[in-house]
Design a protein that fits this description.
Oligomer: single chain
Strand content: 5-15%
Radius of gyration: 18 Å
Number of strands: 4
Length: 209
């Protein structure tokens, strides 16, 4: 079982107790087809492409619930419920790891890691994948020295290929949650999923309790 599947199963069982088993089977069957479109991500040199496997499983869930007659808002609620539980730190050590990048910002170690990440993320390793650039100008990044511009979104490409592009924006909402867990506030002007030319990620440090 994929590490994330358990979160989907629990949510489906909670929201559809009468026919959860059938829905989960349908999700898995759909995923077998969709996963072929993102199989390249497992060996891609672009680390951002690693997000495509779980994104494909979300798409399998979305397609299954849509076929089941659920509304956009119901599907959105369930997707965000799953995502919130999936990214939530399960212990203090995981919380520390999520907050570490913000604490290390502007250190030599962070700068070296950012340089390496930018080299890999900016590569168009696969036409169905991501292309991103790391922004290090402090004036453009609220003094943090770290931001991201997604120039090509692999998630949007995947969802568009399956004619479900209107649902891609749901996954964009998860970015705000993951930023908060890292002790950062996400500042963003637009996303490709909602028609912008790029997804701009800028962050402000928040007080960490």
């Amino acid at each position: 079982m994929n590490s994330y599947k358990a979160y989907f199963v629990r949510s489906v069982e909670k929201n559809f107790p009468g026919n959860a088993e059938q829905l989960i089977a349908a999700i898995d069957s759909t995923f077998k087809i969709i996963s072929k479109d993102v199989s390249f991500a497992a060996t891609s040199e672009n680390p951002v492409d690693k997000r495509l496997d779980v994104s494909a499983y979300f798409l399998s869930l979305i397609k299954t619930l849509d076929a089941h007659g659920e509304t956009f808002e119901t599907i959105r609620r369930i997707c965000l419920e799953i995502a919130a539980e999936y990214v939530r730190p399960k212990n203090k050590f995981q919380m520390l790891l999520k907050r570490l990048p913000a604490k290390l910002a502007n250190t030599w170690l962070a700068n070296a890691a950012i340089k390496k990440l930018n080299k890999k993320a900016s590569q168009n390793s696969n036409p169905d994948g991501f292309v991103a650039v790391i922004i290090t100008d402090k004036e453009q990044t609220f003094g943090l020295g770290y931001g991201i511009d997604i120039l090509e979104c692999g998630i949007c490409k995947l969802y568009k290929k399956h004619n479900y592009e209107k649902y891609a924006s749901i996954l964009c909402e998860v970015d705000e949650l993951t930023s908060q867990l890292a002790g950062l506030k996400l500042v963003r002007k637009g996303t490709i999923a909602l028609g912008a030319s790029k997804c701009d990620f800028r962050f402000k440090k928040e007080a960490i309790s």
